[in-house]
Amino acid sequence: MKFLPLVLANLKRHMLRTALTICSVALALFLFASLRTVSTTLASGSEVSSASRMITQNATAFVIPLPQSYATRLGSIPHVQAVTWANWFGGKYGDGKKFFAQFAVEPESYLKMYPEFQIPEDQKQAFLKERSAAIVGEGLVRAFGWKVGDNVTMQGTIFPGDWTFTIRGIYHPSQKEYGDDSFMFHYDYLYERERDRVTPGWFILKIDDPNAAPLVAKTIDDEFRNSSAPTKTGTEKAFAAGFASMWGNVNLLMSTIGMAVVFAILLVTANAMMMNQRERTSEVAVMKTVGFSDARVFGLIIVEAALISMTGAALGLGGAILLPIVTGFGTGGFLPGFHVTPGTALVGGSIALLLTVASGIVPAWQAAKLPVVQALRRVE
Amino acid sequence: MALVEIREVDKSFKREAQTVDVYHGLTIDFEQGSYTALMGPSGSGKSTLLNLVAGLDKPTRGTVRVNGAEVSAMTASQLADWRARTIGFVFQSYNLLPVLTARQNVELPLLLTNLRKAERAERTAIALDVVGLADRMDHFPRQLSGGQEQRVAIARAIVADPVLILLDEPTGQLDAKSSEEVLDLMRRLNEEFHKTIMMVTHDARAAAQARRVLHLEKGVLLEREEAVVS
Q1: For B4-226, which CATH class?
Q2: Which regions in chain B score pLDDT beneath 70?
Q3: pLDDT value at position A329?
Q4: With 70 as the cut, is the pLDDT of residue A331 above it?
């Protein structure tokens, strides 16, 4: 600790350079953590998905709906215990700057299908009773300041016009990966106004045995193979993984960009550290004359590098962690539970440590091995 | 027994393909409490002698002993530790750390000791008081005159209470008044605090302060004389 003022004084020598170097590290780790969080969020979406739930969608494309009549037929397939459905609404609220997902759902069966959405019983009953009622996630309540009883009007984009809903419930997800920024309302409310256009976007099935999922999927898809709307059925986990794969090889892309950014910053930091060291050749020689050993000089420079890297890491990783919390930034339900995991923070911390070693070791070694007499001769 | 014993020292440098001999069989003693000025033209080996005594450089052959310890046989880390306890070094160009205040510069050698913060502060204040800069403690080097900077450098050299103070052209960059102040200070350190001093200088007035003056020419001691202390 007694050497800390010396280290801090050296860092303050070129305040602007030190600040810019710290900002570079912070930016690199912010980008790294954010990009990696996209990957981990996509992965966690499929990890927390229920193995006993299956999704039936249109085989041609996810955005093409299915006939309502399929609900009854799906319910009669062996191993299928319950069926519900949902539809994408695609409305715009306010200035539309904050995007969030809105689903028209069959209310009673949908809430039974997803016990992960936890709602107080009285709010749930109020939601079920009223056709224009809606339930919203806690994240939306935080973002918009809504409360139970508020009327919310949205502009439909797929289904044009103003749509007014009354918030009757606020849900809390039992696992944050399910997200707290979705808006759900009665399918019938949508159907009433758009009778000719509205049919279910996808069906969700509950099966009695997760091991029977392949059989159930094959039976359903065979059943509708020759119909006007053939289906594609899979487990919710496979659906989530498929959704992730729509983004391409996200992991590879995110990792590559993240590591490229980190590598670039490593070069910047190493260059700044070496420049610092070159400017201090005479001072290092004086310190050694005073009695500082090679090891101590080496340690002081590594500590300087560590302070730069760790301060940058704290700012960068802290920013990435706080951003979705403070700003209410979400992905509109596409990436529910978007948050920096402890694993990502740990990897970020390890990168900062690596930056410390990689950027500090060369200047520290050069300073430790500096021949004092030659350095002093240059000065004198 | 002499404080500094130099025995049969050879010192040569490699310069490109050539070997340059600085000393050949140099033998000399410096007594405890002595004040010696080393004079001679550039390249005669004056600074090299200080470097050998401080353990900053190693002789090609022979031994250098200071206060009973064979400097020439120590490892780098032993030397660093020994130097912190034994030697105070003052340079021509002051060589204060520009990012530290006068107080912090003077405290630097004490960071290598086991002294507590309060003890370090007390000894730093005493050293700065000795050199007459108690009121400039929190000034940075850029806020001090050349003479004041050199006095801070002297305070740094004496703060750890070394037995030997080595000065390499301490008045080389100072005006007459500042030189006088520094030389007075060195005389006080020698007379009142009984510090052994070896000073390289080109300045005859500075040399005149010393009790002993040695002339080095091409690594050979040409002349020895006892100076008259004014």
Answers
A1: alpha beta
A2: 222-230
A3: 55
A4: no
Confidence of residue A32 (pLDDT cuts 50, 70, 90): confident
- The pLDDT-based confidence of A346 (bands split at 50, 70, 90) is very high
Which of B80, B85, B95 has its CB closest to that of A286? Answer: B95
Q: Which two tokens stand for residue B170?
A: 């301490």
Q: How many CB atoms lie within 10 A of CB A16?
A: 7
Tell me the ipTM for this assembly: 0.87
A211 and A68, same structural domain? Answer: yes
Beta strands A161-173 and A133-137, pairing class = parallel
As a whole number of angstroms, the distance between CA B205 and CA B178 comes to 13
What is the H or E stretch that residue A349 is in? helix A342-368
**Interface contact B108-A9, CB threshold 8 A:** no
Contacts with B, A 250-289, CB within 8 Å: 282-283, 286-289
Q: Give me the residues paired with residue A102 across strands.
A: A183
Instruction: For residue B154, give the chain A residue with the closest CA.
Output: A290
Same domain for A91 and A21? no
| pLDDT single digits (tens) B77-136 | 899 999 999 999 998 888 899 999 999 999 999 999 999 999 999 999 999 998 889 999
Q: Are A113 and A82 in contact (CB under 8 A)?
A: yes
Between chains, do A2 and B111 touch, taking CB under 8 Å as contact? yes
Sequence-distant (6+) residues with CB within 8 A of B74 are B55, B82
Q: Which helix (H) or strand (E) holds A56?
A: strand A53-58
A139, A172 contact by CB (below 8 A):
no
User: Is residue A339 situated within a structural domain?
Assistant: yes
Interface of A with B in 283-302 (CB under 8 A): 283, 286-296
- In chain B, which ranges are continuous DSSP H helix? 46-54, 76-86, 102-107, 117-130, 146-158, 176-191, 204-209
User: Is A61 near chain B, with CB under 8 Å?
Assistant: no
Give me B109's structure tokens.
């050698």
Residues A64 and A39 in one domain: no
Chain A nearest CA to B62, separation (Å): 19
User: Given an 8 Å threshold on Cβ–Cβ distance, is A287 in contact with B89?
Assistant: no
Q: Which amino acid is at B78?
A: Q
Identify whether residues A15 and A147 lie together within a single domain.
Answer: no
* Cβ–Cβ < 8 Å for A175, A48: yes
Domain boundaries, chain B: 4-226
- A272-309: burial string, b at 16+ Cβ within 10 Å, e else: bbeebbeebbbbbbbbbbbbbbbebbbbbbbbbbbbbb
Cβ within 8 Å of residue B9, ≥6 positions away? B23, B25, B26, B27, B52, B59, B61, B62, B63, B64
Same domain for A284 and A221: no
